[in-house]
Amino acid sequence: MVSRVADRLLIVVSVLEGRYFPKRPKHVLIVEAKFDGEQLATDPVEHTDQPEFATELAWELDRKALHQHRLQRTPIKLQCFALDPVSSTKESIGYVVLDLRAVQEKKQAAKWYPLLSNKYTKFKSEIQVGVVLETDSKALVDDYKAKDPPLRQGRAPALRSGLDPKSIVPILNEEEGYHQIGPAEYCRDYFVLSVTIAFATQLEQVCFLSMCSY
């Protein structure tokens, strides 16, 4: 089971921001990423001199496929476009090619990549991109669900006769710091509720959104 989960990976490309772009108030910028015939794209952002993309794009594959793509030198191509929302005209600004052979499972610092074939010839436009291999979190969750839940010691309380099941709802006792389930005269036992978080990822995005809310 462990080996099957470990074989499932995500290629995660983080398109963070840009610099040295001209300001075009009537246009927006998007970055389209293409790998192995599958295309993903960022949301449109303002066409400023320092556009903020702050987007992660990911492709799922296993280690065998990853090995083949590295042997074949399959590229990850990021194409930058300027879009006119009124006319829907899309102009190709330039592109970046990422080498999959250099991608590691250990997160590396994001790098600045100059746009190749840059349409803005008077500007040295660049985009900041990070790329990493991650274990597929969905695979970990599925694996966790497939296992039998851990046994808990204790006994399950029997339902008292005459009680309406709909009336048995948890009520928070703030002073004592616990939840009471059912009428007080029937509450005799204490139980501990355990919650297991199987896996977490992209927690840095939570911090980023929290800071943005201020």
From TrEMBL:
Keywords: Coiled coil, Cytoplasm, Cytoskeleton, Repeat. One of its GO terms (cellular component) is centrosome. The keyword Coiled coil applies. InterPro entries: C2_dom, C2_domain_sf, CEP120-like, DUF3668. GO terms for biological process: interkinetic nuclear migration; positive regulation of centriole elongation; regulation of protein localization. Signal peptide: none annotated. It is found in: Cytoplasm, Cytoskeleton, Microtubule organizing center, Centrosome. PROSITE patterns: C2. Coiled coil: none annotated. Residues 1-113 form the C2 domain. It comes from the Eukaryota. Belongs to the CEP120 family. This is Centrosomal protein of 120 kDa. The gene is CEP120.
